[in-house]
Amino acid sequence: MTIQAVAMKMERTMSEPISTGYLLQYVVEMQSSSLNSCLLLNGIEIASYTAKRRSISSQKVNGWLVYGDNELELRAAVDDPAHLPGPVALKCLLFRSLHGKQPDESEALASYVERDLQKMPVGQMQTVWRKTFQPNPYYGPWSWERGYPMAPDKPTMAAAMSLVAHILSLLDAGRADQLVEIYRVYIDENVRAYEMDAAALEAQLRAWCGGWKQLNDWVLREEDYEFIPEARQRLLQVRRKDRESVFGASGSDVIYLAHLPIGLVLVR
Known about the structure:
With 268 residues, the chain is of the alpha+beta class. The chain is built from 5 helices and 12 strands.
């Protein structure tokens, strides 16, 4: 089936359950060429691209789904219609499929495909497509849904950097048991939602701690980081401006924090 046929195909109902004992995954596929674009799910930025290169990505989004209505929002814009690096193209597909199965475009629950330059905003990114859907099954509720709103103010940024510094101190000291407890909410939610093996998740963290060695001359500085409130300010995305690992030598290039009754907690 061609891309044009997929774009014209009527979207399938999302409430019909799939009868299976296997884990179902919601997957979003994106293609972006010659324009700036970003995709949000429930206000959380899950993909972002620049006009400098053609980008293709596919990612699971189960962990960001909430009960009831969920909204995908696609934003895009071209910098200068007279000076484009190549043909404009933007595509977003939403799938629900069995874990490990590669979905076909004809199976998309929702789709957006656009190649017409005249339909793209110029300059600042604007919304070009929205889609609301209700997931079935639903793997929440997630701890961050019950968190307190956060703003990227000085106290919040200082608290986030304090947590990053604490994790680095545990890695430097080889304190694997304490590192595992920092990730306890993350572990527990993966076990509850996806029936993952807690021991295996803990073993990954212990292996990270055991093999840890920081980069020479690496310094933790708040000015090197970005702090982005998402999901109606219930999540705080923390990442380095250079898009390297949050922790320097290795580890995630982005982490998500939530302000729970027990304090600021790493949840993703």
